[in-house]
Specification:
The complex is a heterotrimer of chains A (214), B (265) and C (666). Chain A is 71% helix and 0% strand. Chain A is mainly α and 214 residues long. In chain A, α1 crosses α3, α1 crosses α7 and α5 crosses α7. Chain B folds into 2 domains: 108 residues, Beta-grasp domain (Ubiquitin-like (UB roll)); 124 residues, Fumarate Reductase Iron-sulfur Protein, Chain B, domain 2 (Orthogonal Bundle), CATH 1.10.1060. In chain B, α2 runs antiparallel to α6, α5 packs antiparallel against α6 and α5 packs across α8. The longest helix of chain B is centred in the N-terminal third of the chain and has 15 residues. The longest helix of chain C has 25 residues. Chain C is globular, with a radius of gyration of 24 Å. Classes of the chains: A mainly alpha (214), B alpha+beta (265), C alpha/beta (666). Chains B and C meet through α1, α2 and α3 of B and α3, α4, α6, α7 and α12 of C.
């Protein structure tokens, strides 16, 4: 869970960096998208690196989902079914973060979004705002529609929460939280990464929606 | 003061339980929560109703026998054991929900009493230092840095009450397991078995049916002894070391309780 | 009747002269031999170990031992015997062996390590313990305890007990009540917990290894004696109610003390005398039952509902000043009572020791001022322990560093802030020096029945020193019993016991009959209401101060109350379930019988010694006065039968190494 999660967070950060290229203009953005396919040449064949990344990502996502399902099912059994306490006076726990609360369902939301996202921008199967050959145009066409931006925003907030608890939890699981100082630092780091990812991903769509990028 | 209790009643492990309502009038706010239940039980007995079964022993917060989920929180509103919770933490007229620890590995025996023997089996799986009686070197043979001794002590104060499990949204006993791993792992005497211990105890933890830890932190927040959350990371660190060092750290065969004797003797 | 020593201050001479305690008991033969080897004291333990027969490791697996109780004495014995290769079966009434009441001990554990280089030695620990016990302990046993103390610390450190350490990494020591050396090892205020967890882990290791079979939530209700040997126990499974029989070649009782006869004590709710009492009824002698220790610094009772008392470490008396208002009429807030209206009675009565007088003296002084009507708090049963002067002198941070956790406990329980307002304290029972009589081997008077820890009449005489209970429990369990029991087991294995043997069926039937009676009385009073009343009687008449008149009154009343109990107690439910009222009912029934014997023992011992203070035997200024000429013996009581008088066997105490002296703390 922790390892796959960290790989995915790493990917998110790289992805976000790529997205921000949109502010450098259509040419730079498209060049970046093409460059990804040529990455590693001539050592690797065309799109070779991309495929390696894709395979690693796919394994990570599947591994992450498997681990999540496993944890959920163990927790479900350990809690003794759905109805645990009759008292509803402490539904939100003593100190738990909202991020930890939304981890599982948030993960499902993210999964659905990723499928939609791939259909839209990667595989070019659905085209809100009109089809286009170049990635830049697909992005710009799509994010001129407010509903697309809204869906994207919801997904990114879910990602933010997920990353907030995920970063903290992954590093704790890997043994980085061995003092109260480390705990404070990890929490700051988790908030920072989550904030960075959320804001970083949300900048391009809003810039497009409000016409700063066209 | 007067309060209303909604209490989990269950005749035995096989029976279906339900919440029952009791009015408890004229109680003192200086009573402990368990003394309030004692008073209720006295009244129930005189009325001819079965008194409520609940565990408690030392009633000074150290034996770990007591433990109730009060208003949905393990050990109730104060971060202490149930026996150290007093009625002054509640107000006149309150409706108070009282339930047993809920977890699959802690089956209910009766009413508010649960079976926590899973904890003993986790300890059996490695939560000790093999130091047969009489074989010890002088106590001063190995100095232990004060910092390590103090941190080991902090972890060793676990009273094994099970509040961590009752509070964990995953039903995990990781804080309990980690407290022991940390206590013994920080001391020089605990080093030889450090890695086999963590592998054995975590395997037993999982086999008992406790859930996995997702680092939510509810356990530490209700722990009457405030076992630090960091112990879990320490456990993970030891576990990773053990797993990446291969078979040499896997638990040995259980020690035999007898000395091998030369047949010709 | 022997003549009174000339300086006895007789408060009620008429009663003393008409004393006819004889009608309560019969005198039997003296105990001639305690089996301590007849060599110089420092060689006795070595000699005993050498003479004790050994069991070949291959034969040990053919021998079985039952151990009841898993506190320090039981867990350590079970772990050690299991490791040695015997088949051990262990029982405890709690849901885990780690919950036994040893866990609640706070202060520390003594050992003659002399790590401070302050002149400590085995001999000094021996000397302090004999003197502290007011010359009513057996020299041989105490010397061995002091010898073994050194090994205990080594053993515990090797097990990972996190004792307090200094910056150099070596073990820290503190000094403790009434001794001049620093020999107490500690783990903050939770020494008992840490030592018990060490022993518990060793025990769990043996359970995993299959040498010890552990049965939790199982309570011993009867001892099985076959052909004169202790061969087994009748046990009730507290979850299912099943009455089981278990057999072995030897039985060890490590079931703790009987302070709960007082209802209110610092013991855990479940602590009881049943195991040792059942053994007494089967022929094991019960020694010095009236020797109980009352601790001066406990949190006072706040109401009738109170279920137990909580101890506050004795160390509080180092900086706190104890006082009551000069006038009983003075009901002002303590902070508003000016100095001239306060009575710092310990400082007044004992100018040289002041607030640091020994436990028994501090306790009795508190009782006296409360009896004068000057007690404070609800019911007038409390005295102030004031830190205002200490806070002014040392500053709050220092006081907080020294006593922070204790202040927190106090605030948690009482709702008062001891930094602002003086604490209220009152004495409470917390340890019983009496228990089953054992010889040098820890063997009781029934062959094959061994008794360890607080359950035996122990090494503490009439008063136990602080930090010595943990030492004794572990000494017995780790080092003494495993060495002595082999001498008995060397004769085994004994013939297998048949389930249909009359001794077995009789024991099982007796247990069933008792349970059925308790369940069928269906009277009008709860078990706790009887227990509370019994406790109050014992506390009033066999507590801090005992008198001929009071003890006689108590005996009459206890006997009446016992009759009422068996005809008016109400226990609901059935045997075949978890039935906590039924568990308590059986224990309280035994407390009645024990309470009677305690009063008889106190009545017979017409002297004051240690925790036993007879008003008839005091010095002109009100201090305890021992009578060595007549009472330098251990009272070992033999059961005479239901409604028959118990038989007193005296074990004379001979002091070859420590000279008998009268204590003085003026």
């Amino acid at each position: 869970m922790a390892v796959t999660g960290l790989i995915l967070i790493g990917y998110l950060l790289a992805h976000m960096y790529g997205n921000l290229k949109i502010f450098a203009g259509a040419e730079a953005f498209n060049e970046y998208a093409h460059h990804l396919r040529a990455l590693g040449e001539p050592l690797l064949p065309h799109t070779g690196a991309l495929w390696i990344i894709r395979v690693v990502l796919l394994i990570s996502v599947l591994g992450h989902m498997y681990a999540a399902f496993n944890l959920w099912s163990r927790a479900h059994k350990a809690r003794g079914g759905t109805r645990r306490y009759y008292s509803h006076k402490s539904r939100t726990g003593v100190q738990r973060t909202y991020a930890s609360f939304t981890l599982r369902w948030g993960g499902v939301v993210i999964l659905l979004f990723v499928i939609y996202h791939l259909l839209h921008l990667t595989w070019n199967i659905i085209h809100p705002g009109g089809a286009a050959a170049e990635p830049y145009d697909r992005v710009v066409n799509g994010f001129q529609i407010w509903s697309v931006v809204l869906a994207y925003t919801i997904a990114m907030i879910a990602v933010g929460f997920h990353v907030r608890h995920g970063t903290w939890s992954a590093l704790t699981t890997l043994g980085a939280n061995t003092s109260s100082l480390a705990r404070r630092r990890l929490n700051v780091l988790a908030y920072a990464v989550a904030g960075l990812v959320t804001v970083g991903f949300l900048l391009p769509p809003f810039a497009i929606l409000f016409g700063f990028v066209s | 003061m007067n309060v209303t209790l909604r209490v989990w009643r269950q005749a035995n492990g096989r029976a279906k339980g339900k919440m029952a309502i009791y009015r408890v009038n004229d109680i003192s706010e200086d009573m402990s929560f368990l003394e309030m239940l004692d008073v209720l039980n006295e009244r129930l007995t005189l009325q001819g109703d079965d008194p409520i079964a609940f565990d408690s022993d030392c009633r000074e917060g150290i034996c770990g026998m007591c433990g109730l989920v009060i208003n949905g929180v393990a050990h109730g509103p104060q971060q202490t054991t149930t026996c150290q919770l007093h009625m002054r933490s509640f107000s006149d007229g309150d409706v108070i929900d009282v339930e047993p620890w809920r977890a699959d590995p802690f089956p209910v025996i009766k009413d508010l009493v649960v079976d926590r023997s899973a904890f003993d089996r986790i300890i059996q799986a490695g939560g000790y230092i093999s130091a047969p009686t009489g074989t010890a070197p002088d106590a001063h043979a190995t100095p232990v840095p004060k910092r390590d001794a103090d941190r080991a002590f902090d972890a060793a104060t676990c009273i094994s009450c099970g509040a961590c499990v009752a509070a964990c949204p995953n039903g995990s006993a990781m804080l309990f397991t980690a407290a022991k791993i940390t206590h013994l792992g920080l001391l020089p005497q605990g080093q030889p078995e450090r890695y086999s211990r963590v592998v054995g105890m975590v395997a037993q933890h999982d086999a008992e049916g406790f859930g996995g830890c997702t680092n939510i932190g509810e356990c530490t927040a209700v722990c009457p002894k405030a076992i630090p959350f960091e112990t879990i990371s320490r456990l993970n660190r030891d576990l990773i070391s053990a797993l990446t060092h291969g078979g040499s750290h896997w638990p040995r065969a259980a020690p035999k309780g007898e000395t091998e004797v030369d047949e010709e003797d | 009747m022997a003549s009174k020593p000339p300086d006895v201050h007789v408060t009620n001479s008429e009663l003393l002269d008409s004393l006819d305690a004889d009608s309560f008991y019969v005198e039997g033969a003296d105990i001639a031999d305690t089996k301590a080897p007849k060599v110089p004291i420092d060689r006795r333990w070595e000699e005993r170990r050498f003479r004790a027969r050994l069991v070949n490791p291959a034969n040990r697996r053919k021998l079985s031992v039952i151990i009841v109780g898993t506190g320090l004495a039981g867990s350590s014995a079970a772990a050690t015997l299991g490791e040695a290769g015997y088949n051990v079966t262990c029982f405890c009434y709690q849901d885990s062996p780690r919950r036994a009441h040893s866990i609640a001990a706070q202060g520390g554990i003594n050992a003659a390590k002399n790590y401070r280089n302050d002149g400590d030695s085995v001999y000094r620990l021996f000397y302090d313990t004999v003197k502290g016990g007011d010359f009513r302990a057996r020299e041989s046993n105490v010397y061995r305890l002091a010898e073994v103390s050194v090994e205990i610390i080594d053993q515990c450190v090797a097990q990972g007990v996190p004792f307090a350490r200094e910056y150099g990494g070596l073990l820290d020591n503190r000094s403790f009540g009434g001794v001049q050396v620093s020999r107490t090892f500690y783990a903050r205020g939770q020494t008992g917990q840490q030592l018990l967890i060490g022993a518990y882990q060793a025990l769990e290791r043996q359970i995993a290894a299959g040498t010890v079979e552990m049965n939790t939530r199982h309570e011993m209700l009867e001892l099985i004696v076959v052909d004169g040997r202790a061969r087994g126990v009748v046990i009730r499974d507290m979850v299912t109610g099943a009455i089981e029989t278990h057999f072995a070649d030897a039985v060890v009782l490590a079931t703790g003390g009987y302070s709960n006869v007082f209802f209110l004590s610092t013991n855990a709710m479940g602590c009881n005398v049943t195991a040792t009492w059942r053994a007494y009824r089967k022929g094991a002698y019960f020694a010095n039952p009236c020797f109980t220790q009352i601790h001066p610094t406990c949190i006072p009772v706040s109401g009738d509902y109170q279920s137990k008392l909580t101890l506050m470490s004795e160390s509080l008396r180092n900086d706190g000043r104890i006082w009551v208002p000069k006038s009983g009429e003075d009901k002002r807030d303590p902070r508003e009572i000016p100095e001239q209206d306060r009575d710092y009675y310990l400082e007044r009565l004992y100018p040289s020791f002041g607030n640091l007088v020994p436990r028994d003296i501090a306790s009795r002084a508190a009782k006296n001022v409360c009896d004068e009507g000057r007690g404070v708090g609800p019911g007038g049963l409390g005295v102030y322990l004031d830190f205002a002067a200490a806070i002014a002198r040392l500053g709050r941070p220092t006081v907080e560093a020294r006593y922070g956790n204790l202040f927190q406990i106090y605030a948690q329980i009482t709702g008062d802030d001891p930094y602002q307002t003086p604490m209220r304290i009152y004495p409470a029972v917390h340890y019983t020096m009496g228990g089953l009589w054992v010889d040098y081997d820890l063997a009781s008077s029934i062959p094959g029945l061994y008794v360890t820890g607080e359950a035996n009449f122990s090494d503490h005489g009439a008063n136990r020193l602080g930090a010595s209970a943990l030492m004794q429990g572990l000494a017995d369990g780790y080092f003494v019993l495993p060495n002595t029991i082999s001498d008995y087991l060397a004769d085994g294995p004994f013939p297998q016991v048949d389930q249909s043997h009359p001794a077995v069926t009789e024991a099982v039937e007796a247990v069933r009959a008792r349970i059925n009676t308790l369940l069928s009385v269906n009277g009008s009073r709860t078990v706790d209401s009887f227990h509370r009343e019994l406790g109050r009687l014992i506390w009033d008449y066999c507590g801090m101060e005992r008198s001929e008149e009071g003890l006689r009154k108590a005996l009459t009343r206890i006997r009446e109350l016992k009759k009422e109990y068996w005809s008016d107690v109400r226990v609901l439910g059935t045997n075949e379930e978890l039935n906590q009222a039924l568990e308590r009912a059986g224990r309280v029934a035994d407390f009645f019988e024990l309470g009677e014997l305690m009063c008889i023992d106190a009545l017979v011992r017409r002297e004051s010694c240690g925790g036993h203070f007879r008003v008839e035997s005091q010095t002109p200024d009100g201090e305890a006065l021992r009578n060595d000429a007549e009472f330098a013996y251990v009272s070992a009581w033999e059961f005479g039968g239901d409604d028959r008088r118990p038989i007193l066997h005296k074990e004379p105490l001979v002091y070859e190494y420590v000279e008998m002296k009268q204590r003085s703390y003026k």
